[in-house]
Specification:
The protein has helices spanning 9-20, 23-30, 34-48, 64-84, 105-122, 141-146, 188-193, 206-213, 230-234, 245-251, 283-301; strands at residues 53-56, 59-62, 97-103, 126-132, 150-154, 163-169, 171-176, 195-199, 219-224, 240-244, 257-260, 269-274. It has 302 residues and is an alpha/beta fold.
Length: 302
Amino acid sequence: MNLARLDLNLVVALRALLEERNVTRAGERIGLSQPAMSAALARLRRHFDDDLLARVGAHYELTALGQVLLDRTSTAYDLLERLFASQAHFDPAKESREFRLLASDYAVAVFGTELARVVHEEAPGIRLRFSQTPPTVVDDTATLLSASDGLLMPHGVVSDFPATDLYEDRWVFVVSADHPGVGDRLTRADLARLPWVTYQRTYDSPAVRQLGMLGIEPRVEVSVDSFQLLPLLVAGTRRIALVQARLDRLLAPLAAVRVVPPPYEPVPLREALWWHPVHTHDAAHIWLRETAARVGRGLEES
């Protein structure tokens, strides 16, 4: 494929056509007349050798290829938008820009709130948008990073992308403050017999994978797609949960739980900011990474 021969404006037209599934509405969306949009659709059909939009009754539906291109076009559009928004110089006190970060609710609660506070004070025109890390992060890391400004994720989940370390945390077990069957320590037998509350997305928790390597099979009673809910689902029950120590301290006023150390040496938790190489030399992104690293150092010192 010779990119020099392609009209990148067709990416804009393709996205509008695939999302609107209507030539007139697609043209109105990007400011083209109906004849101009029809001409763009004809060029796209010749390029892909596919109708892309097929008439079904009184409306159009995407062809099989059109359906495949729908997500790819959105990703390509976002990447091009970020590419051409790159800057040689960036003044955070004067600029207006949004950064999108993929993160778990744990990372937002422990790190994102402090990052947002610092950005609020130092860069009033900068907006942060935190989006939940999707399940495809391991299988499609490059695509996700290309369509965002970064990923907050511990080491041990993704690799082969640039990253800056932020802070360290540790894994602890929590039980109800009045748990009748657990004293000051847990045993491996306790881990096997007691019911668990677990985080659904195990890719975010290398410590959970470690349990399998130790021959420990949790008896899961409740699973939830939120780290912050784990202590609340433990309080007042016989359940146990594995959580991050920083998050437990943050939620201590909300849940009547107590911390007990693991009966083994848990893997370390080193949170990092990962990004796509396309952002490496962008002045605005450099500022974001340096600010994130500074906030992370502040957490380490607190």
